[in-house]
Amino acid sequence: MQIQVVKSKIHRVKVTGADLNYIGSITIDEALMDASNLIEGEKVSIVNINNGERFETYAIKGARNSGEITLNGPAARKVHAGDIIIIISYATLDFEEAKTFKPWLVFPNENDNTLK
């Protein structure tokens, strides 16, 4: 049997922009992607702390150490600059492997989205 578990999580990061006219996705500072073991194109779930919205998109790299968190395309309608969000990705693992799996959890500085 296989189950889905949390693989990566960037907890409480501030949205820096929303670009409705972009194709889609979420742009994430490359340093945060590396720290959370996210790769470009990976499916992510977004939870908006400010308004309760939950949606899925995919990750693209932003400039390293820029603090950028930009929702692009239709997702831009679900956030505002300054909103606090959680970014989560999941992995499918064998049940026994999942029992010992440790996710990559990142808790950036909420003021500027830098690593603590």
From TrEMBL:
Q: What does the entry comment about cofactor binding?
A: Binds 1 pyruvoyl group covalently per subunit.
Stored Pfam families: Asp_decarbox (PF02261)
The residues the record assigns to binding substrate are: T57, G73, P74, A75
Q: Which reaction does it catalyse?
A: L-aspartate + H(+) = beta-alanine + CO2
Q: Residues bearing Pyruvic acid (Ser)? A: S25
Modifications made to the protein after synthesis: Is synthesized initially as an inactive proenzyme, which is activated by self-cleavage at a specific serine bond to produce a beta-subunit with a hydroxyl group at its C-terminus and an alpha-subunit with a pyruvoyl group at its N-terminus.
Which of UniProt's keywords are assigned here? Autocatalytic cleavage, Cytoplasm, Decarboxylase, Lyase, Pantothenate biosynthesis, Pyruvate, Schiff base, Zymogen
Task: Return the broad EC class.
Answer: lyase
Pathway listed: Cofactor biosynthesis; (R)-pantothenate biosynthesis; beta-alanine from L-aspartate: step 1/1
Q: Predominant location of this chain?
A: cytoplasm
Its localization reads:
Cytoplasm
EC number(s) per entry: 4.1.1.11
Q: What InterPro entries does this protein's entry cite?
A: Asp_de-COase-like_dom_sf, Asp_decarbox
Its cofactor is:
pyruvate
Membrane-spanning residues: none
Assembly and partners are described as: Heterooctamer of four alpha and four beta subunits.
| Record family assignment | Belongs to the PanD family.
Functional description taken from the UniProt entry: Catalyzes the pyruvoyl-dependent decarboxylation of aspartate to produce beta-alanine.
The protein's name: Aspartate 1-decarboxylase
